[in-house]
Amino acid sequence: MMLMVLLAAPLLRAQVPAKELTLKDAIEYALQNKADARKAKLAVENSNYQIQEVRSRALPNISANGSLTYNPILQLSAIDASAFPGAPADAGVQLIPFGLDWSSTAGVNLTQNIFDQAVFTGLKAAKSTREFYQINAKLTEEDVIERVANNYYQVYVQRQQLLVIENTYANTLKVRDIIKGQYENGLARKIDLDRMNVNLININTQRQQLLNAVQLQENSLKFYMGMSIQTPISLPEMQFELTPVALTETPDATRRTQYQLLKKQEELLNYQRKSVIAEYYPTLSLSASYNYIGQGPEFPWFAKPADGVYWSDFSSITLNLRVPIFNGFGTRARVRQATIDLQEAEEDLKDTKLALDLAFENAKTQINNSIITITSQKENVKLAREVLDNTQNNYRQGLATLTDLLDAENSYIEAQNNYTSALLDFKLAEVQLIKAKGELKTLINQ
User: Fold this and answer.
1) What PANTHER family does the entry give (predicted)?
2) Whole domain around residue 170: which residue ranges?
């Protein structure tokens, strides 16, 4: 029975219906399941806890303490006994123990920052930190959408190429069967049949290579979606259209997520610099404590004065002022390091803006070139199809050679592949253009 189950497992997997995916479905699935998107959401959630941690520095800290001490040997202190009233003049120096064998203390301590510039700066930076992670999560979503869209279009184009090869294989098989019948009837040469068989094998080899390429590309798509690699998928039948694209207006690069993320990072670095500068400021804090102490020659817990154990309370309130004076120029060095980090962030902003403008211009150029290529290749496919049909008819009537027929087939396959490749280039450039305009989420509506 176990052997039967193992043998049937591949068949059962093969019978699982393929999940049909539109581009919208693929993107929505990725945003919910891809590890990058999920981790970005966790980072936003974690930023709330980071804010709570910073806020705790401005709130009072309360702690309880307790101790139990046993002194097996009490320290002796040297005292001039003759100085005590009524003591004889020759009393001299006496060694007298201070304290008792046992002591126990329990109490509560409170500490509250009254003025600490670093804490105030940290509270301001906490809000920016949360905004930084929110922008980063948005950027991660855009990256996920871009990767899914690119791989989705590549799967579709390769499937189109596979369809062309399969149709060509079917047509070539029909022609081969006709030549085979003619050869068996003595109306065709064996070399013509052999050439058709070779051509058929070559086309089938291309078909197997494309099948493998489609499978690999589908696996990549499922990986970028966060989907199990074993899940079968299918793409709905659709036709790529040359959608109108606005190429006249140059988008504002400062509104792009990448730029906004660096801008927020610059803001955080500025707060970091202010936090270091805050080390020059004095700090003021308040501390208070209340304690209860028991002392005696016996174990103090649960003991009474009758046992020689006495309990008393004591309390203190302290105002602490710390004024930094000199620390070996350490603070100055850290301030200058923070200033350099801030200047590097400003350079990154300038370079990123240039890179975003470059990406938009390149996408525009690629789209214009793709439109020209698609238009010409579409006409070329139509012409190649007509040439192939006419050559097949002429060959059946003996007006064309087998070489003409094979050349026409190869030209048609090449024209179809060039056309689908141009479509892919257009769609990939369109994704880059949409990205350059900061509108990647609009792909969910397609």
Assistant:
1) OUTER MEMBRANE PROTEIN TOLC
2) 18-57+116-281+324-445
